[in-house]
Amino acid sequence: MKKKILGIILVTVVLLAILFVPIPSGTLKDGGTRVYSALTYKIVDWNRMYEDETFDETKIYFGADQRKTVDELFAQEEETIDKFVCGEIIEMHGTSVLIRPLEGEWERRSADRISFNIQGFEEIGAKVGSVVEVTYRGGVMESYPAQIRATRWRMA
To answer: How many whole angstroms separate alpha carbon 111 and alpha carbon 128?
Structure first.
C-alpha cells in the first residue's frame, strides 16, 4: 500500500515538473532576450533593441500567447510602447496633420513625411511651421506619406 502511494506521489511530482518547470531556450541575438518555456506557459526576459531604444521587461505568456514566436510576441508588445517623434508641421487639413521629422529623428531614416490624425486631441495652438512632439504606438506604416497611430501631441 505504501509503495502504491509513493508511486502516485512520484508520478504526480514528475507530471507537475513537466507541466510547470520552465526550461531555458538560450539567449537570442536581438540584444539578449532570454526565453524559458514550460508546457503551460512561457517566460520572456526581454532585452530587445528596437529603433534607438531597448525594450527591457520580463513577461509571462499563457494560453495561445505561449505558442507564439518571440517575434510575434514582440509585435504584440510593440503596440503598447510609447514612441515619440518631433517634426515640423507642413500641412493641416481638419484632423489630419502632416509633419516632416526633424534631422536626427529615427523615423526620418524611413520617411520624410509622416501623417497622423488628431481627432479627439486637445487644441495646442499648432499651425503650419510649428514644431511638435507626437507620441504614437505601433510601427510607422510604410505608405507615402508614412502614417503613425498618434496618441497625443504637444508643442516641442
So the answer is: 19
Instruction: Give residue-wise pLDDT tens across range 76-104.
Output: 998 888 899 999 999 999 999 999 999 99
Give the contacts of 85 (CB within 8 A, at least 6 positions apart). 99, 101, 105, 106, 107, 114, 133, 134, 136, 148
Residue 45 half-sphere exposure toward CB, CA atoms < 13 A: 11
pTM above 0.85, yes or no: no
What is the set of domains in the chain, with CATH numbers? Answer: 21-78 (no CATH), 83-155 (2.40.50.140)
Task: Give residue-wise pLDDT tens across range 92-147.
Answer: 999 999 999 999 998 998 899 999 999 999 999 999 999 999 999 988 888 999 99
Quickly list H helices, 32-152. 70-78
